[in-house]
Structures are given as C-alpha cells and as structure tokens.
Design a protein that fits this description.
By secondary structure, the protein is an alpha/beta fold. Among the domains are: 39 residues; 156 residues. Helices cover 23% and strands 32% of the residues. It has a 13-stranded parallel sheet with strand order 1-2-4-6-9-11-13-15-16-18-20-21-22, with helices on one face. Strand 20, helix 8 and strand 21 form a beta-alpha-beta unit. Helix 1 packs across helix 3.
Length: 355
C-alpha cells in the first residue's frame, strides 16, 4: 500500500471506521498520514498506539482541529511549540508509555484550554539538568490519574481539580495547588516523602488510601477539615510515628457525614475503639485482614456496636493456600464468632470476600 499515491491511500482509508483499522492496514507512516489528512477535520477521538517508520508526529498532525479525545501509547512526543490553543476542543488526554520531557508536557497542557481529564501511565519523563521539578498547570483540569511515575518533585496547579488518583508512584514531593474543589483522593501503593494537597479540603467526599506509609499528624491535618467526607478507606496503611493513633472518636467528630467506612486489621494498633461516640451515618462497613488473628472478631464486634444504623458488613480476608492447622483453627473460630455475633444484628447484610 505504501507504493500508492498518498491521495489514493487517504481515499481508501477514510472509508474505514476507526484508526485501529488503519494500523491493521499498514505499519508504515504513509497510510497513517494519508488517513489523518482525510479525516482530521471531522475526527473527534483518536486512540493511537502503533509504532510507525518513520515516526508520525501526532501532536502536529492533529493540532488546531476538532479532536476531543486523544490517547497516545508507545510513542514519543518532542518539540511541542508554545501555543495556547493548539488543541482548542481537547477534553481528554491519555499518555501511556510515552516518552516526553517535563517541559513539553507542560506546554502540551497549556495548549489544551478545555482539558478535563488527564492520564499519565508509566511515562518516560525527561528532566533537564536545570529542572528538578515537574510543574504542570491546567485551570480546566478536573480529573487526573497518575500511574508508575518516578520523580523528585511534582507540582500540579489545577484550580478546578475534583479527582486525584496516584498509583504505583515514587515521589520525593507531590504538591497540589488548587482552590478547594478536590472531591476524590485516591492513593494506591505510593512512596512519597512530602505530600501536600492544600488546606482547602472542605469539599473532599472520598478518601481511599491503600499500601501507603505516612506520618499520622500530616495525614490527619490533610483531611481533618473534610467535614463533608462520605467514604473513608484506609487499607494496608502504615502511620510512621509512635503517636499515630486513629480512634473512632476522632473519625466521628471530624466526619459526621461518613456513610462508608473501610479499614484493614493492619490498623488495629492505630485504629482503636476509644471513646463513646457513634458513627450514626455509616451504613456500609468493610473490615479485613491480611493475617488473621484471634482478636479480629472482637474488633468487628466493637465496630458493629458503634454503627447503630449499619445496613451492610463486608469481611475481606486473605487465606493462604498452604494453611497450617493453627490457621484453620483460627478461621473456624472466627466463623463461629461471626455467626453468633450477627444473630444480634439480623438487619445487617453480611458478605465475605476471601482471596
């Protein structure tokens, strides 16, 4: 096909329904360029994950068009020119396994004045010798998902951000500069020394943290003002200080609207049942263990007493394949304890999820 005139190739490929059909047709750049020439004026979505010879500069080929969704994978982005409206209609941008410099990424976001969703998945981000911090700025951005990113310092300025999700990242510093619009904070298996999401956290409704280590005072200060919090999940979290004590008294007073609470037994030493306050609005309670203990059923019972309006209880557990006699005994004892316990709470639906 690469030996045909570009006009003929474009006419043929413009009749295909999706860009993936172009990829099947040929791995050379000529068909891709031809297809873009004939479709870019009306193209709204482009998912581009093919390596061509030579490389096609998708950023340049699709700029100043009506593109609303752009997903790039396994490509390189270089030489982004400063332009405020290079992508005037783009609302969603996904970069997966893409090589790009921190400077080019910053320029690219500036060129998308209507961008709302950004996903960075395992990008190869090049930093210059004089640049120790990656700074991104997007006034329109509402949702950002960052996975497998390793940087010293990452500063995100996003006045309209509502959803922040960090996963499998290694960062020395992450700072969010916003205006208090954040509603959802998810942190999953992240290593970060300094985490700052700003002081205006009144609008936070969901905090979901797993496989994470942080100083309790810092974490508490981050979310303690979130009086509108409705869902709190702390799973596999380690508070790296001796004074890290999370008690239900604190949870009850700080988060009066909390309706969904999820805690793992790893927190048993830092999530006590001190005080007498109840979690009046909690209707879904998720509790789990990584290594089962004799005391787990007592821990569950304590939470049930403090959640008078509970409707659903979910127990998560990890059961090893090579179970010892002692593990089997503890699991059987726990099962019997839960059966007896739930006779007092017949109105509560109970589910078990073991892996």
């Amino acid at each position: 096909m690469e030996h045909l005139p570009v006009e003929v190739i474009g006419n043929i490929l413009s009749r295909l329904k999706a860009a993936r059909d172009v990829v099947i047709a040929s791995a050379t750049s000529a068909p891709v360029i031809a297809w873009l020439m004939y479709t870019r004026d009306t193209l709204r979505q482009l998912h581009y994950n093919v390596r061509t010879t030579p490389i096609v500069n998708i950023i340049e080929k699709c700029s100043r068009q009506k593109l609303e969704v752009l997903a790039l994978a396994y490509n390189s982005v270089t030489g982004v020119e400063p332009s405020y409206e290079k992508f005037p209609c783009l609302k969603s941008l996904s970069l997966s396994y893409v090589s790009i410099s921190a400077w080019d990424l910053s320029l690219l976001l500036t060129a998308c004045p209507k961008l709302q969703n950004l996903a960075l998945i395992n990008p190869d981000i090049a930093m210059s010798d004089a640049q120790a911090t990656m700074e991104l700025n997007s006034p329109s951005l509402k949702d950002i998902y960052v996975e497998a990113v390793s940087l010293d310092k990452f500063i995100l300025e996003a006045d309209s951000i509502e959803n922040l999700h960090l996963k499998d990242c290694t960062l020395e510093l992450f700072e969010l500069i916003g205006k208090g619009s954040l509603r959802v904070l998810k942190i999953d298996d992240v290593s970060v020394l300094h985490l700052d999401i700003g002081d205006n956290t009144e609008n936070l409704q969901i905090v979901d943290v797993s496989s994470f280590t942080i100083m309790w005072p810092k974490f508490y200060n981050m979310i303690s003002k979130s009086s509108n919090l409705k869902r709190l999940r702390l799973w596999g979290v380690v508070f790296d200080d001796e004074d890290g004590v999370v008690d239900l008294e604190t949870v009850s007073s700080c988060f009066p609207q909390l309706s969904h609470l999820s805690l793992s037994y790893d927190l048993k030493d830092v999530c006590g049942l001190q005080g007498s306050s109840h979690l009046e609005n909690v209707v879904v309670l998720e509790l789990g263990w990584t290594i089962i203990s004799e005391l787990f059923s007592d821990w569950v019972a304590g939470f049930l007493e403090r959640c008078p309006n509970l409707k659903k209880l979910v127990i998560f557990g990890v059961v090893s394949e090579a179970k010892s006699h002692e593990e089997c005994r503890i699991l059987a004892s726990f099962t019997s304890s839960i059966v007896r316990l739930m006779r007092k709470y017949l109105h509560v639906e109970v589910q078990f999820d073991y892996e």
